[in-house]
Amino acid sequence: GAKRAPTAEIPLRAGKGWCYEGGIRVPLIIRAPSVTRPGSTSDAVVTSTDYFSTLLDLAGLKQQPQLHVDSVNLTPALNGKALERDAIYWHYPHYHGSTWTPGAAVRAGKWKLIEFYEYDQVELYNLEDDLGERKDLAKQMPEKRDELLGMLHRWQKEVGAQMPVKK
């Protein structure tokens, strides 16, 4: 199984550098004068790859989808609208200082799946009922597990994600 994360983000699980919520759920503040209403908030789930297409839009530049296939323009969320996104993905195919081992995650609505490459296992969580990711539902809900795992693998192929090589 996995080691302990180097930081603690209670009540979220694990911390910086991990695919559990404690490692990927952080607040984001965007100041975009004349675009956002001062003091407004959004519950949109976003990732740093979204900055590219958003900055192009805010700067009035042409979108370049061939360069930001994994980016969603956040401008609608800045205006209080919903984002058109089926899922959000994280991909860490490498080891790093947080003691995280190679893996990836996908979140679709309230569902989140984490795949651990080194351990050849997946975990499934219902974030609406279990924000701390304490109850792995992968064995109890094989259809939901396989649905999200399929989404993750299709996305990885679509974006040309680099995958770890077993030695």
Descriptive key words:
single chain; 167 residues; alpha+beta; 4-stranded antiparallel beta sheet; 4 strands; globular
Can you describe what's shown?
- The protein has 167 residues and is of the alpha+beta class.
- It contains four helices and four strands; from the N terminus they run αααββββα.
- The chain has helices at 21-24, 50-58, 75-78, 142-159; strands at 88-92, 103-108, 111-116, 121-126.
- Strands 1-2-3-4 form a four-stranded antiparallel beta sheet, with helices on one face.
- A hairpin with a 2-residue loop joins β2 (103-108) and β3 (111-116).
- The longest helix has 18 residues, at 142-159.
- The radius of gyration is 17 Å and the shape is globular.
- The model has no long low-confidence stretch (mean pLDDT 88).
List the helices and strands and how they pair.
Layout lengths: L20 H4 L25 H9 L16 H4 L9 E5 L10 E6 L2 E6 L4 E6 L15 H18 L8
Antiparallel strand pairs: 1-2, 2-3, 3-4
Kindly estimate the percentage of residues that lie in beta strands according to DSSP: 5-15%
What is the 3D form? Answer: globular
Give the % helix. Answer: 10-25%
Count of runs of 4 or more consecutive helical residues: 4
Given helix and strand content, the structural type is: alpha+beta
- Radius of gyration (CA) equals 17 Å
Strand order of the largest sheet: 1-2-3-4
What's the total count of β strands? 4
* Measured distance between first and last alpha carbons: 19 Å
Biggest sheet architecture: 4 strands, antiparallel
In sequence order, what are the helices and strands, one letter per element? HHHEEEEH
